Amino acid sequence: MRYGDVKQVVLFVLAVVGLSICALALAAADYADGSLPVEVIVDLNDVGPRVNRNVLGNNIIGYRSGWIADAYNRFGGGLWNPNTRAVEPEYLKLLEEAGVSVLRWPGGKWREDMDWKLMMVGKDRQPFGLPEFLSLCNAIGAEPVITLSAEHAADIDIPALIAYLNQPLRDGSDGKSQKWARQRAQDGHAAPYGVRWLEFGNENFNSPMSVEEYVEQYRVTRRQIKEISPAALLGAVLEDTDNVESGWTGKVMSELATEMDFGIIHPYIPMVVKGAIEQLGIERLLDSSLYADANLEYRLARYQEAARLAGRRGGLPLAATEYNAHFTQDEPYPIRHTLSTALHNADFIRVMLKPSSNILFANYWHLSNGYWGMLKGYPYKNEEIEKRPNYYTYSILNRFLLDELVTVDIRGAVYD
């Protein structure tokens, strides 16, 4: 490791620890002088595995209808300029600073029917469609993740979509796959996009679809995808719970543990509704977000153990395609947009960087505007873009993360 590397590692550690100390100092009223003695020990002789920067991913919402649909389907949540057909320059700079390495679209349930042939490709597509999303990914150097519909898998014609994304264009060839490869070329991209990561559904444990139907359709869809694009990987939905022995996750593990390419999780920990805040008090619930990392680490280990017991060898790759502290309130202030939640998400990234967590990639929920956006503002409305606290978690990590993990020991007073 070069001296410059060591210096940056130390700077990164001090930046993250410094944020933590500030938070503790504000909370620890017993320390009248505001000081908390802390010792940071970096063992540069214990260099671990390479850093997985794919934990710095993010989400773009895809609304089908409603008052906000135009902002996302025309302007990509503020990121896209349909007149120039390019990323808004200010957003481009901010996404690069935040190191967005993986970009998921269309997130959430709003497009579960995924009518992509009518609205996402072709000359009559919406202004922010599939080619525009993939162009945005290319502009910032991010890997795309595309959410497929599980409930309507047969209706949306997934083989045609995979052909559009990944089938090489062959002169003189005919057939269904070539039809969609030609459509991609007509949309301005002759070469295959080479999309690697696909999700089969979104939180289907909360849908009318039974787990038995899901397992059966996953197998059919995965086979269809591999016939067209053998390198593509399809994720299977796991429920966000510590219960991995029964219910949705237990069934998916027992049936698919040795087949699924990766598991999909959405760790919203803690999950706190407005009524709980009113009953328990905001300070108590703020504290809960600062130890949620222990719950996450426990849950990740539970997934791995369940996969092992179901016959999986070598560990199950997991993709946290959505995560955040789930505070759904605005009074007395929106906790989701505070430094406390930013520290919570930094801790989640720390856990997900551990090799034992087996995280393939992770996507913060979510990038711009809407209820959770870490950036706020629409350039087409001439609005200034506001950086919310969660943005700084990613910009700091992107700036100071290097290539290898090192062992760090932090010793100091304990806030109780």
Task: Describe the protein in words.
With 416 residues, this protein is an alpha/beta fold. The protein has 15 helices and 15 strands. Strands 2-5-6-7-8-9-11-12 form an 8-stranded parallel β-barrel, surrounded by 4 helices. Strands 1-15 form a two-stranded antiparallel ribbon. Strands 3-4 form a two-stranded antiparallel ribbon. 40% of the residues are buried. Mean pLDDT is 88; it is low at 1-32.
Number of strands: 15
Strand order of the largest sheet: 2-5-6-7-8-9-11-12
How large is the radius of gyration?
Answer: 22 Å
Strand content: 15-25%
* Shape annotation: globular
Major beta-sheet overview = 8 strands, parallel, barrel
Uncertain spans = 1-32
- Overall residue-averaged pLDDT value: 88
Number of helices: 15
Write a compact overview of the structure shown.
The chain has 15 helices and 15 strands. With 416 residues, the protein is α/β, with parallel strands linked by helices.
Write the topology of this structure.
Elements (H helix, E strand, L loop, with lengths): L2 H25 L10 E13 L6 E5 L7 H5 L6 E2 L4 E2 L1 H9 L4 E6 L8 H4 L10 H11 L2 E6 L4 H4 L1 H9 L9 H11 L10 E4 L10 H18 L4 E5 L9 H10 L5 E4 L2 E6 H7 L1 H8 L2 H18 L8 E11 L10 H15 L5 E6 L10 E2 L9 E2 L1 H12 L3 E9 L4
Parallel strand pairs: 2-5, 2-12, 5-6, 6-7, 7-8, 8-9, 9-11, 10-11, 11-12
Antiparallel strand pairs: 1-15, 3-4, 13-14
Helix pairs in contact: 1-14, 1-15, 7-8, 7-9, 11-12, 13-14, 14-15
